[in-house]
Amino acid sequence: KRNIAIMTSGGDAPGMNANVRAVVRAAIYRGCKAFAIMEGYEGLVRGGPQYIKEMSWHDVRGYLSEGGTNIGTARCMAFRERAGRLISCKHLIEAGINALIVCGGDGSLTGADLFRAEWPSLIQELKDTNEISLEDFNTYKHLNICGTVGSIDNDMATTDATIGAYSSLDRICRAIDYIDATANSHSRAFVVEVMGRHCGWLALMAGIATSADYILIPEKPSSSKDWQEQMCTIVGKHRAKGKRKTIVIVAEGAITSDLQPISANDVKDVLVKRLGLDTRVTTLGHVQRGGTAVAFDRILATLQGVEAVKAVLDVTPDTPSPLIAIEENKIVRKPLVEAVKITKSVAEAIQNKDFEKAMSLRDSEFSE
Length: 368
Ligand code: ADP
Hints:
Order of helices and strands: EHEHEHEHHEHEHEHEHEHEEHHH
Helix content: 40-55%
Strand order of the largest sheet: 3-2-1-4-5-10-11
Bound molecules: adenosine-5'-diphosphate
Distance between the termini: 46 Å
Number of helices: 13
């Protein structure tokens, strides 16, 4: 029997609460103790009962649909340093925890991966400096770690969807539906900036779901001259056919092929100057993250939470840490290290201007 802790880390995403609920209840169902680490890695670094709390079945009542994360999340600089991870190791041992499930984005899971890899040397150091007893050293030789990806960006490799992405996409589509009314009424153009960091998934899918006229995403940039030319040709053609509204979606990470950022205002200037359109910019901002989780995210988070508990009970010191993914509608385990590595190589491919590679490394919807 294990003492299993769940933590949410990085940017909040709808469905994180559902994941916490599923982990807590699946752990208790399997006869384990469940804990919540408050405030992401910050809670591990600080330690103690205020930050590492045992959770009962009833503590997570109502969590299923709620947006955000009730156990808190934070960006934690200390955990990026070995000293921060060393004290985290001690705090976990003090709390008697031997399995950790991290629900977070690629940064959080990179940290989790590093923590597990370093664990043997961390406990060795704690033993050598008499911070932990020989008995604890022998009891906590291995920390089982498992990742469930919580991120609105859908930017993690090897999983088709991350927890929160479909809720955010739904919010974006609703917002654009609202904007449509004004665009149509005044025959206006709207440039809508959406989140996603270095990933264009939200922009791409929102574009398909709202029949946007043009989309700018980081994975498929063109030269400054080319995108302007192409956008104006397409928008001009639609207008000539009698379309009264124009919607252009810009991913927050949109760039030119020279890696220069393209802002929503840059796009607006082109629409105004070259096409003479009455153009407004709408930056959706944090409304994209808020609100209740859509049914898909509740289901995804719940199934993944249950699977994560099974995974930490299965993992032996020799098996690589798993990431719980969804692939072709099946909940599956993937090697965490691999997922983190591929995700990094997308960013590297973009930095090296190898956009074809970036597209092919992204999930299939990008390459089709
Ligand atoms: P996300 O998980 O949403 O990608 P961040 O990249 O901000 O968000 O990561 C969340 C937290 O995970 C950071 O504040 C830090 O504590 C931890 N973290 C991120 N990258 C690393 C790393 N390379 N090594 C150790 N910890 C990391």
